[in-house]
Amino acid sequence: SRYQPVWADDVARAVEHSLKEDGPGDHLYELAGPATMTYAEMSELVGLLAGRPRPVIRIPLQLVHLGLTAIHRLVGENAFATWQEAELMRVSMVTDRGTADLESLGVEPRPMAEVLGEY
Question: Which pairing describes strands 2-3 and 37-38: parallel, antiparallel, or unpaired?
């Protein structure tokens, strides 16, 4: 699956700008960052920028399902993730509009590497 990670501050600025717009307020915005990445690419980037690169190990979703089900049975609602959340990893979250909606709201979205490089 592919994603277009967008920085929370960019989203906040877009929301703020949209609330100041005149009009009916029923416009749908698709907010996306400037890069399209896989989950593995995002994980590798985080490790690299943290100075702790690690190999990414791909685990079959069936095994993830079994593990999360077992964890949920052990700790209940305190589980760190649910199977439903893990299933979202199968779904690409990209828009054909790219960064157009953010830019129309006066926001120049920052790439994930640039933002994480500041931390």
Answer: antiparallel
